[in-house]
Amino acid sequence: MSTQSIAQPLQGRVAVITGASSGIGEASAEKLAALGAHAVVLARRADRLTDLVARIKKNGGSATAITADVTDRAAIQAAADQVAAERGGADLLLNNAGVMLPAPIEELATDQWQRQIDLNITGLMNVIGAFVPQLVKAAGEGGGVADLINTSSIAAQNIFPNFAVYSGTKAYVTHLSRHLRVELGPKNVRVSAIEPGIVGTELQGHVTDQGAIDWLEGSKEAIEWLTPQDIADTIGFLASLPRRVNLQQVTIMPTGQPY
């Protein structure tokens, strides 16, 4: 094995990253590109994506930006068609777009409920529907491998008061991933769910409930949060494993976070 292949184990692969304009998605795009993949970065904020692509290229990587909203099924299918036309299709998909809007259920914050369901569940399914055929095709060609990595949360497993709707959407992501692994694993498509504890990203900035804001601020003072780069490193590790190895569920916790 050459030094180049060791340093860039994802050379020749095409990685689509949703929610790539910040946080885990942004860091993962940079990591996957550094490992040799062509990063297709997808999000709504075109200016952020332009800066990200420029940074990846400056560091010797390869990337393409596609501006799209994952809740728009037609736009996501058009993005998939573009990836197929320009790059021959994706063989790595990081489903990372999401939003966290905790609030007591009795507040009846129905708009926030719907936003979380639309993005964390329906958006996820739009992307899966558009790109899974490409993953299956890639894995079936010449002994290839493909990866579907879904960003879930420790909230899929543990109980956090006032996070019921968000936690429910993430439980969906984790359980869906288990089912998809059974369907796609025999076709050499690896399926993994990443379940991070608290990561310092823009998610916390979207929170409007004061009780949740206070809880998050208190936790930040008490423990050292994970960084997006911590999660990106894990995603790069998963995608670089031998074809026969599939870590189906990875929980990544800050050392000081008890649950």
From TrEMBL:
Keyword Oxidoreductase: yes
Keyword Transit peptide (UniProt): no
Pfam families per record: adh_short
Keyword field: Oxidoreductase
MF (Gene Ontology): oxidoreductase activity, acting on the CH-OH group of donors, NAD or NADP as acceptor
Database matches in InterPro entries: NAD(P)-bd_dom_sf, Sc_DH/Rdtase_CS, SDR_fam
Top-level division of the source organism's lineage: Bacteria
PANTHER family in alphabetical order: 5-KETO-D-GLUCONATE 5-REDUCTASE (PTHR43669), ALCOHOL DEHYDROGENASE, PUTATIVE (AFU_ORTHOLOGUE AFUA_3G03445)-RELATED (PTHR43669:SF3)
Family stated for the protein in its record: Belongs to the short-chain dehydrogenases/reductases (SDR) family.
Protein name: NADP-dependent 3-hydroxy acid dehydrogenase YdfG
Organism this protein belongs to: Streptomyces echinatus
Lineage: Bacteria, Bacillati, Actinomycetota, Actinomycetes, Kitasatosporales
